[in-house]
Design goal:
single chain, alpha/beta, 10 helices, 12 strands, globular, binds threonylcarbamoyladenylate, binds magnesium ion
Length: 320
């Protein structure tokens, strides 16, 4: 009989304390976490995910006191952002303190920090007694998990998972960095530009990055299903047949003739569409369709985050 991969928060906290990995829910996607202050523990994340070491991790906290210890800044804007969006799906990239090991930040002088809006995640951080470094719990470059069946599919031999049901946001946190004149978005998410601008201004400049690094949030290809995926309106393979394809549809219009149809939001609500996006891609990836065809949405607000994922997912299959 197959071993039960699920554990409770107490067991998970003990594993984190011992320098082991745990997969746990957040409000965005499931993360695979380790004690952020223990470089050996963190190295196991890179190993499990087959993640290149140039790609820095996000550190999850449960209190602002920890933020002070992990960063080297007195920036008053952090408090405003934290009050407005934490706990929640916003990651802020800040100058790091010496406490944060280099492996977490891929040698950068900055660290991405967020306080997740999920009771299990917050309890786990509290009970572990340390900040938790955690990327999404998927193999590098593949689809992010929004429920535990997505995890057991990619990591059938991983036995330390906390069950937390389906995640409520469904796509990864918005990542921002703070320039002198305001914020700059590094990765789009559910918290979009207009919402951030209510708190602090958007930066007019592009940050001069301290090192030319490629970070996965910025890679062209990412979040990819194993089944070839194309965007509607772009060139399709010559042998493309609707009855062999799975359609990702926003509202459920124009769905005639496809083998499978996944509707992201009947009522055309982009927030709901974001929640359902990865899960729809997982279902089509697991199905016997030959291709996935995804409708596009206007690149505005949450539409920008959804299109960022779809463009990256389809990039490697794009017909040039
Ligand atoms: O919603 C989320 O953010 C999820 C959950 C688990 O919290 N985590 C997540 O982590 O999406 P991950 O590893 O899949 O994406 C982290 C990305 C990196 O690829 C990079 O783009 C950015 O965060 N990042 C982390 N630290 C950074 C830094 N110091 N400077 C710039 N970007 C950074
Ligand atoms: Mg990821």
């Amino acid at each position: 009989m197959k071993k039960d991969p699920f554990i409770n928060i107490e067991e998970a906290a003990l594993l984190i304390k011992k320098g082991e990995l745990v997969i746990f829910p957040t409000e965005t996607v499931y993360g695979v976490g380790a004690n952020a202050l223990d470089p050996i523990a963190v190295s196991k994340i890179f190993e499990l995910k087959e993640r290149p070491h140039f790609d820095p991790l996000i550190v999850h906290i449960s209190s602002l006191d920890t933020l002070k210890k992990l960063t080297k800044t007195e920036d008053a804007r952090i408090k405003l952002l934290a009050e407005a969006f934490w706990p929640g799906p916003l990651t802020i990239v800040l100058p790091k303190s010496d406490l944060v090991p280099d492996i977490v930040t891929s040698g950068l002088g900055t660290v991405g920090i967020r306080m997740p809006d999920n009771k299990i995640a917050l309890d786990l951080i509290e009970k572990s007694g340390c900040p938790i470094a955690a990327p999404s719990a998927n193999k590098f470059g593949r689809l992010s998990p929004t429920k535990t069946s997505h995890i057991t599919k990619q990591f059938p031999d991983f036995y330390s998972i906390i069950e937390g049901g389906e995640t409520k946001v469904g796509i990864e946190s918005t990542i921002i960095t703070l320039n002198d004149d305001g914020f700059e978005i590094l990765r789009h998410g559910i918290i979009h530009k207009d919402e951030l601008e209510k708190i602090i201004p958007a930066s007019k400049q592009k940050v001069i990055r301290e090192k030319e690094i490629i970070i996965s949030g910025m890679l062209k290809s990412h979040y990819s299903p194993n089944t070839p995926i194309y965007l509607k309106g772009e060139t399709l393979p010559v042998d493309f047949k609707k009855d062999e394809a799975g359609l990702i549809s926003f509202r459920g219009d124009d769905t005639e003739g496809y083998k499978y149809v996944k509707v992201l939001s009947q009522k055309s609500d982009l927030k709901e569409a974001a929640v359902n996006l990865f899960s729809a891609l997982h279902i089509l990836e697991e199905s016997d369709c030959k291709y996935i065809l995804a409708e596009t949405v206007e690149e505005k607000g949450i539409g920008l985050a959804i299109m960022e994922k779809l463009k990256k997912a389809s990039y490697q299959y794009k017909i040039k």
